[in-house]
Amino acid sequence: MKRRQLLALLGAACAVRPLAARAQQALPTVGFLSTGAPDIAARYLNAWRRALGDTGFVEGRNVAVEYRWAEGKYERAPALAIDLVGRKVAVINTTSGPAALAAKAATTTIPIVFSGLDDPQALGLVESLSRPGGNLTGVALSFDSLAEKRLQLLHELVPTAARIGFLINPENGNAARLKANIAAAAAALGLDVITLTASKPEELEPAFAARRERGIDAILVGEDAFFNVARQRLMELAARHALPVMYFLRHFAVEGGLISYSTSFDDMAYQAGVYVGRILKGARPADLPVVQPTKFELVINLKTAQALGLTVPQSILARADEVIE
Question: What is the mean pLDDT of residues 10-21?
Answer without folding.
Answer: 45
